[in-house]
Amino acid sequence: MLNLEPKxxxxxFEALSRIPRPSGHEKAAANxxxxxxxxxxxxxxxxxxxxxxxxVPATPxxxxxxxxxxxxxxxxxxxxxxxxxxxFMKDPLxxxxxxxxxxxxxxxxxxxxxxxxAMSLALLDDSQSVHxxxxxxxxxxxxxxxxxxxxxxxxxxxxxxxxxxxxEEDGSIYVGCAGxxxxxxxxxxxxxxxxxxxxxxxLSVTGxxxxxxxGDIHEGRGNANRILVRTLQAMExxxxxxxxxxxxxxxxxxxxxxxxxxxxHLDKDRLGAAKDAAAEMQAAARAELKGxxxxxxxxxxxxxxxxxxxxxxxxxxxxxxLAAVPHGYLAFSRDIKGLVETSTNFAIITTFKGKVxxxxxxxxxxxxxxxxAADWVASIGRLAGAKVVQSDGYPGWKPNLESPILKAAxxxxxxxxxxxxxxKAIHAGLExxxxxxxxxxxxxxxxxxxxxxxxxxxxxxxxxxxxxxYKVLVELLxxxx
Length: 481
Hints:
There is one protein chain. By secondary structure, the chain is α+β, with helices and mostly antiparallel strands. The chain has helices at about 5-15, 25-40, 110-120, 145-150, 225-235, 270-290, 310-325, 365-385, 405-415, 430-440, 465-480; strands at about 45, 50-55, 70-75, 95-100, 100-105, 135-140, 160-165, 175, 180-190, 200-205, 240-250, 260-265, 295-305, 330, 340-350, 355-365, 385-390, 425, 445, 450, 460. Strands 1-2-6-3-7-19 form a six-stranded mixed sheet, covered by helices on one side. It has a five-stranded antiparallel sheet with strand order 14-15-16-9-17. Helix 1 crosses helix 3. The model has no long low-confidence stretch (mean pLDDT about 95).
């Protein structure tokens, strides 16, 4: 037991952390939410896509208040360190407390958005809570592309004011977010007809922080895929002849890749030169990423490979293509200081026998910029001869600075903490954009505690900020009632 306050918030978070819930596999988590509703004798409903809503009556005397929707998602990003044996499909998370922080050992924590789910459920056991009628909305498959909320029925909730519980910055109120789109590219490759008799080696890029491709992209953290490709190019510049068999990096389209690997054949007498190139690239990367990703490590070690190496022509085409794939922030907002307006994430490289797949994701709070960024990446793929497939994307959430629920929340924050927060927007994608499309006129804000390094095994949530956010939530619901 974590034995933290607020007690019920952490009890629900611990219970949820024992349930495997990768995106697309939230059935057990949804059943658990339903069991909580049944335990409390509450009405609930589950949609075919998997979303669950619990309807909570108002506390006595507040039955005439408008319905307020509290919303969070049940799934989590499943990232782990390369040495971890954790199985996200069956193993509970290993939670631990370090001072004011809660973390998970070797894996993502799932505070995004498990802590928001836990806060909503904790209200059911809070005898001091005063509120109008509530609808607790729990969506599924958010992290893979907002698929659960995309399947939200137009009558699934009745409330027209909503508190999204998925913000990761203590003391802030978010009123806008970016829209997004995925661009996947598949390049066909040919392999040599015979096996390469030279020994095989694995080039590894590890030690990077990774992080959220929306919330952390502005920091310029290292991208393992880019560093790996640069290292291979550095070997080529030194005249080191190698035959590439595989290249793989990243695992989630919405996470900055932390690790990447390449397997190649090489003459033994050129191994020293290859290691020198790797060491030089490591020194350059550490200098470039000083203060951001100081622990980046590049190493070469013996390996085995299941495939013959690529043909010489395919290797040239593949490395040229990968070197051209862009990554990082592309533009900052002119309206909100410090907000990334447009970005692209070079997320995943996966090698198969006859093809290499590359996944990228683009974000922007300006839809014309989103289309431009997606077209840019797609054009690079087409120039390389790759097959390009793009998702339909999802809309951004346009800020409404005259929002009644925003004004109420600002007043509550000021009364509780003595400071009235300025409304903000986030470069990450929140479900509010789609909810606003499906429920025109929905009045929305997003709040949450301090969560850092989401979408990476360094994810952590600050205990004191959970206390503060839950207090604001309870007081805000009381004010809205």
